[in-house]
């Protein structure tokens, strides 16, 4: 479909050869450990003799889950990986898409007893990822969700006193740190999808690093910290976590063919719609499509348009199951993207960047990348924060491309020219450097951080943004100045207990305060 759609094939690559995440991109002298894997293509190809499956009398579904687990590339690296992780306080692990790092490493650590003295926490930037991963791991451990394996997201806690592996959003772990800055209940914290650099994630880096250091100084149970991603600035993360060694794990390397447009696309929504239906008319119905748009409004509008057009396709055309995916979509509807389509139907998933890295969707053969994303931007002068549509970074573009090569060879249609791609920023600017910091300052003060102005951020926020955040909290009555130190007022402490923006938190607690 490439020529008639105005695309030109530029290159083929094997997943992992695009974004700069391999050991060769580390600075000279950085400690790098290359882990063995079964990353040679097919499932289980070239693997050594494996032990028999556990509990052979289990249901066919659970046996299939176990076989799939053992076919993951990380399975071959298990022994060497555990040898490294047991002996390290901190580690940076680069695991390519499809390697199995997020679901398997917590289980491996549990199986060798890391959780005997504390819970293994796995943080995720998004609630849908935390819930779906906990569900998957509980299936693999053959246990009811909420017992051995559980999750905690805002307004939903599915854990028990027996939970040893807990998936949770980074914001929820931050809230726990307000009441326990040492994170005493945890023996290991795995910071997953670290490259996303959300505002909560960046604060959590500093909180976990400080907890690890303080526990060591007090002679308490050491806190193991593992930072994971499919792609990141390896040197930055390793240096921040005290020169942590870098462990590199390859994933399945299925070839992906990339097509760029011949001309710039001034209407990326129309270009995406045309691309979807040209693929739909030509490709087998078993091959699903993933489209990246910027937000709920665009996604719902295109979903409706796709359904309307699909009703009028010629006889014999495959049926189309159009599924939107964005963060505020009810979880029950989000789950539909993980389910197989009925026979004769093709899934067309229209998503925000939530599908870039946080979740795994099987069956995707084609990716249509508009090259656009919505990102927060804050103006400290006006005090306004907006969601602006902008170009993705090169890292994000590679992540989107990689969605097409999870299980087999894939194709990515980039709705921009190669020249445009070369002008993209290499990495996404961290949220901490472009967002309103009022919530961050409120949380840090609630944790009794001695000096929020010198907090150990991985990437320092703008001084103007910090001062604007302090001024906003002062205006809300959340701060008081004592001996040249910032502390929270009684109102500020109550505001910090709410997982809301400070101005909304004040609206929630103000009525409970006595008059006068």
UniProtKB/TrEMBL annotation:
The keyword Nucleotide-binding applies. The keyword Nucleotide-binding applies. One of its GO terms (cellular component) is nucleolus. It comes from the Eukaryota. Its EC number is 3.6.4.13. SUPFAM superfamilies: P-loop containing nucleoside triphosphate hydrolases. Residues 48-57 have a biased composition (Low complexity). It catalyses: ATP + H2O = ADP + phosphate + H(+). GO terms for molecular function: ATP binding; double-stranded RNA binding; hydrolase activity; RNA helicase activity. It holds the Pfam family DEAD. GO terms for biological process: positive regulation of transcription by RNA polymerase I. Keywords: ATP-binding, Helicase, Hydrolase, Nucleotide-binding. Residues 1-57 are annotated as: Disordered. Residues 82-250 form the Helicase ATP-binding domain. Residues 38-47 have a biased composition (Gly residues). Residues 275-448 form the Helicase C-terminal domain. Belongs to the DEAD box helicase family. DEAH subfamily. This is RNA helicase. The lineage of its organism: Eukaryota, Metazoa, Chordata, Craniata, Vertebrata.
């Amino acid at each position: 479909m490439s020529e008639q759609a105005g695309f030109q094939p530029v290159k083929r690559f094997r997943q992992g050869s695009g974004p700069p995440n391999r050991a060769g991109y580390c600075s000279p002298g950085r400690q790098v450990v290359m882990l063995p894997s079964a990353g040679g293509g097919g499932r289980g190809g070239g693997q050594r003799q494996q032990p028999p499956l556990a509990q052979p009398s289990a249901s066919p579904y659970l046996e299939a889950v176990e076989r799939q687990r053992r076919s993951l590339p990380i399975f071959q690296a298990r022994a060497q990986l555990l040898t490294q992780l047991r002996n390290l306080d901190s580690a940076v692990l680069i695991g390519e898409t499809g390697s199995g790092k997020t679901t398997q490493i917590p289980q491996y650590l549990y199986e060798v007893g890391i959780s005997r003295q504390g819970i293994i926490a796995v943080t995720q930037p998004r609630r849908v990822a935390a819930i779906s991963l906990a569900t998957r791991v509980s299936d693999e451990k053959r246990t009811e969700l909420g017992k051995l394996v559980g999750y905690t997201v805002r307004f939903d806690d599915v854990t028990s006193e027996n939970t040893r592996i807990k998936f949770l959003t980074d914001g929820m772990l931050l809230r726990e740190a307000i009441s326990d800055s040492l994170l005493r209940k945890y023996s290991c914290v795995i910071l997953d999808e670290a490259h996303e650099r959300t505002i909560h994630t960046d604060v959590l880096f500093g909180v976990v690093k400080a907890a690890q250091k303080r526990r060591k100084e007090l002679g308490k149970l050491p806190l193991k910290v593992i930072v994971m991603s499919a792609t990141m600035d390896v040197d930055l993360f390793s240096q921040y976590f005290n020169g942590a060694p870098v462990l590199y794990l390859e994933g399945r390397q299925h070839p992906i063919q990339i097509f760029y447009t011949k001309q710039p696309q001034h209407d990326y929504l129309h270009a995406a719609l045309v691309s979807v239906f040209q693929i739909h008319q030509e490709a087998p119905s078993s091959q699903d499509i993933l489209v990246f748009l910027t937000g709920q409004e665009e996604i719902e509008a295109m979903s409706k348009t796709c359904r309307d057009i699909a009703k009028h396709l010629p006889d014999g055309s495959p049926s189309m199951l159009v599924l939107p995916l964005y963060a505020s979509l009810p979880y029950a509807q989000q789950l539909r993207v993980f389910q197989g389509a009925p026979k004769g139907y093709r899934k067309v998933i229209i998503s925000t960047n939530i599908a870039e890295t946080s979740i795994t969707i099987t069956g995707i053969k084609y990716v249509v990348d508009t090259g656009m994303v919505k990102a927060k931007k804050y103006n400290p002068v006006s005090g306004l924060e907006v969601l602006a549509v902008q170009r993705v970074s090169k890292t994000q573009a590679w992540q989107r491309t990689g969605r097409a090569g999870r299980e087999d060879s894939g194709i990515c249609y980039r709705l921009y020219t190669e020249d445009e791609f070369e002008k993209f920023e290499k990495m996404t600017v961290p949220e901490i450097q472009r967002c309103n910091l009022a919530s961050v300052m409120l949380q840090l003060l609630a944790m009794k951080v001695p000096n929020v102005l010198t907090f150990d951020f991985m990437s320092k926020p703008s001084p103007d943004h910090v001062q604007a955040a302090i001024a906003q909290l002062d205006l809300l009555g959340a701060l008081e100045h004592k001996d040249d130190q910032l502390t929270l007022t009684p109102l500020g402490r109550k505001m910090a207990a709410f997982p809301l923006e400070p101005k909304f938190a004040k609206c929630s607690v103000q009525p409970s305060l006595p008059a006068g």
